[in-house]
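*** Protein under study ***
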Amino acid sequence: MFNKLKQFKDLRDQAKKMQNALAGEKVEVEKNGVRIVMTGNMEVSSITINEGLAKESQERALVDGVNEAIKKTQKIMAQKMQEIGGFPGLS
């Protein structure tokens, strides 16, 4: 039982370490003048809209930009996991 608790604590510590490492990362994506900034923890920190675009174009650029930012953030997460060495106890 204590072994399982230790594994859980190690996993929680590793997740906290990963979260802290990702907090300092930033991803910026621009599509047709619509700019999205996202943290490594996948939180959108800012969105700048191109007022000159038609509403439909703004919406499409926003959707495409957020999706691209998420993909870039996921790649950063994968790299950080490799650097940290993955999560212990997951098999």
Remarks:
- Residues 2-84 form a domain with the Ybab; Chain: A; fold (CATH 3.30.1310.10).
